[in-house]
């Protein structure tokens, strides 16, 4: 390309009434395709590539490059290359033009001799020393004259010298800068709106998960940190199809966890099939799970679908997986890995699309050591492991669970609402629960049954830890004694505590004798008048 390639037409052709920029129709029309090609660029990078291709088409130039200033304003980069030019390194010509805002022109030989930046030297290494290099700063024509980058052109000496005054090139450069600036702004806006969209999506995602976790709180009660964490993990598990292994002591709520994950998952509309591996004889377990063909074994009069087939499209819950026989464990592993199973007596395999949730209170790692559980199955089952906390690890939840279980009892038994005295609640909180939530629930059911309609559960209505449930109130005295003992750790006001214990005993006796004070006093070895006095003091008259 020669300078003429960019040159504006002869000034003599300019007409007074015509925009001074539009000088010659023929030349304008000839330049149109190239301009349109640039205008159609959708990114600054595409624009630079088109510009370079355009420049290199013209005679006289052997090399053209367009550098861009990065977001920090400290570096100039090259499309499709890792090379970076520090704007404060005057070992290359680009820093000079960016600093001065003016074009720079020198021979390639001089450039090699005077500029020592290795990246720049690599650029010009293959060029003939006779050629000339011109570097032109590129700035947007906006008010701030924002820096965009630099244009580097190499060609025959004469051609390059002429470029300095080439109005055609200046016009092409101006158009490029205008488009570049606009595309950069659009790109920035697109990026900003994408960031906004992403963060909104994240917020929505977070809100959705939070709402789901709160919904789970209706099934799986507990406001303790341990339960909140568990519910969050359950939401994550529900979002996937991974096998879930729920571990935890007996009565902690593993069954509830499994059902809640199913209910929160995309399979919620599908079946939830559950089986307790410990409750089914070994010989039956296989056919229960895999199903069988007619005549597969004696007594198999009809073909029957197993739980794996019935759980298709839903969830299969294997409770007490630790009790599954080794031979069956191998078959289960195959189902998990291939999604295929073979009913007993069937000649062909079938497919099942199910999510498996397994639960156990057994320490499976120990069972592996004892060679009673397959390690490969353990790892396959535990794609998403969940540990359900014991009640002891979340004593804070006892009050909430208690209220819920009382309300549940009253609704089941059609009783009026019932409460619990602070002393009884303190005792509940102080107890040891080897049976975890199930034990607490049973205990509350019992205490509710022992409390008169509309009354509050008193400490004495709670069975003693050592006493079998059924005997708890058969003889009031020992129970109250134990209740009082269980309270000792919590006692902060001895007199108040003694009053509460005394009141509980008297109230209990009055209930037992249908309010007959004479009989109650006799049974407690007290004169009737003393009991009456105590009732007044303890404000038991109105109850
Ligand atoms: N977080 C909870 N909220 C409400 N009820 C619960 C909770 N956890 C457990 N329960 C209740 O406790 C009882 C035992 O729960 P579940 O059967 O789920 O425990 P589990 O860990 O599966 O017991 P096991 O190991 O003995 O099979 C059930 O009545 C259940 O409703």
Automatic annotation (TrEMBL):
Keywords from the named record: ATP-binding, DNA-binding, Nucleotide-binding, Transcription, Transcription regulation
Gene3D superfamilies in alphabetical order: 1.10.8.60, Homeodomain-like, P-loop containing nucleotide triphosphate hydrolases
Entries under SMART domains matching the protein: AAA (SM00382)
CDD domains assigned: AAA (cd00009)
Span of domain Sigma-54 factor interaction: 220-449
Pfam families: AAA_lid_14, HTH_8, Sigma54_activat
InterPro entries: AAA+_ATPase, AAA_lid_NorR, Homeodomain-like_sf, HTH_Fis, P-loop_NTPase, Sigma_54_int, Sigma_54_int_dom_ATP-bd_1, Sigma_54_int_dom_ATP-bd_2
Name used for this protein in its record: Sigma-54 dependent transcriptional regulator
